[in-house]
Structure formats: structure tokens, C-alpha cells
Amino acid sequence: MGRLDEAEHIGKEAVVKWPKDAELQHWLGLVFFKKAENPEALAALHRSETLDGSQYDIHFDTALVLLSDSNYPEASIELEKAIKLDPKIALPHVLLGRAYQNTNRSIQAVQQFQEALHLDPNIPLGHYHLGFAYASLGRNDEAIAEYNKEIQHSPNNPEVLYHLGHIEVEVGEWGPAVEHLKKATHIDPTNGDAFYDLGKALLLEGDAEDAIPALRRSIALKPSDPTPHYQLSRALDKAGQKEEAKQELEIFAALKRSQPVTGGMASDPVQ
Fold first, then answer.
1. Number of folded domains in the chain?
2. pTM given for the model
């Protein structure tokens, strides 16, 4: 941190001497960003942009700061400006797609991810993000195709494996789902959702015995989520453990009563 403090001191002195220099303001903004002082970083970057709005890097770096703050609406504006200045770089299209996705503009997100892949077919996580956008639009077959393409590039990414397995459960492809979710939970044993989907897929395949430990692991990782208890109750019942199945169903009901209706997974036990 000492060198960054020194850089900040030098940068502040420089912008006092040359207040009309956009590059100095830009540089100072990056120093603040590296120090995790985002308000100061944005102030410097906005001053830089005011002095010279024609620089791609200024808009792109401002967007990075905004993205780190999860300020997706303003980040999308900065990325749109950067892309307008240089539309042939793939990464800003990916980041803009993510900003659109996080502001419920999935169709526009799809367009940005497609453009990024057109510019660079091997851009990291490009197919993953496109698959996620397709999934949010209910275009499940296209989502599965994109996730599978991403796995060809990054076969051990647990998030890609989890999302592929999740959507395979949704469309009834339980065998492939089990394969992908087992791998996802092996690589990342902290993902309670992946263990839940694995247990559900195993149960749907008729393997209640193997579903039970996966669902128990999901409960251990997500103790306040009612839904794994419901699925565990079903698995225990199919495995002949009637009393334990009844207990899990009671826990499910109690957790449901203690939580507001979300309209999501927890509100529908059959999911």
C-alpha cells in the first residue's frame, strides 16, 4: 500500500499543476481504484472524461469501477460509450452483456454476448454468459448448447457445470445432469444449490439412496432453505425410511411458515 500512497500523492500534486490534463486524472483514478477507494476513483475518472470524452480507455476503466460497485445501469452507459469508440474489442461487449443481464435486459445481453463471440470465438466465459442469458429467456436448448461449448474451453469450471446440470434437470435430461452436477460438487463442495440439484436429479432417476446424502449436504450448506427438506422427505420415503421422511416434511413446513412467500424455488416444493 505504501507505493500506492506515494503514487496518490504524486498524482494529486500533478493534477494541481496540470488540471486540464485528462490522462493525469485518468491515472489518478486508477490509483484510487487499486486502493479500493471507488468514490475517489470515480470522481477522478469523471473529471478525466469531462476533459476528454473521446478516450476509449477512460470509459472502459470507469465502467470497471462501476461494475465493482454493482452499479450496472451507469456501467452500461460507460461501456456503450467505449464500444461506440472502438466496437471491435470483444471484452467490453461481454461486460456490457453482463450489465444488461443484471438490469433485466436479457435480449440486449444476448446480442452483446453474440457480438463478443463473433469478435473472439474463444473469449473466456463468452459461451457461459450467453447460455445464462438464453436460460433467463427460457430458451433452454440454446442455453444447453452454449454451456456445452463453454465446457469445451473450461471443463473444470464448477459454475459452468452447475448451471448446465441445473438446466438439464429442468428439461428432464437427468443422466447428463447427474454427471455434470457430481463433477461440479466435487470441484466446489460449498455450492448448496448444486448439491440440491444433484439430489433432485438422482431422485428423478430413481436413485433415492444416493439422493439422500446429496440433499443432506445441501441442507448443511443452506439450513434456512425449506426446499431440500421437501426433496429429502421424498427420497427418504422412497428409501423406506418413513419416520425420517415425516420429520423432514415437518421441518419443511415449519421453515415455509417462517419465511415470506418469495415466488421462487422455496415457494414451490415440486421444483
1. 1
2. 0.88
Does residue 176 sit within a domain?
Answer: yes
What residue numbers bound the domain in which 217 lies? Answer: 155-271
Residues 128, 130, 133: CA angle, nearest 5 degrees = 110
User: Would 5 be classed as within a structural domain?
Assistant: no
How far is the C-alpha of 130 from the C-alpha of 112, rounded, in Å? 9
Q: What is the pLDDT of residues 158-180, one digit of tens each?
A: 999 999 999 999 999 999 999 99
Query: In terms of DSSP H, where are the helices of the chain?
Result: 2-17, 22-34, 38-51, 56-68, 72-85, 90-101, 106-119, 126-136, 140-153, 158-170, 174-187, 192-205, 208-221, 227-238, 242-258
3-state secondary structure 173-233: CHHHHHHHHHHHHHHCCCCHHHHHHHHHHHHHHCCHHHHHHHHHHHHHHCCCCCHHHHHHH
CATH, residue 253 = 1.25.40.10
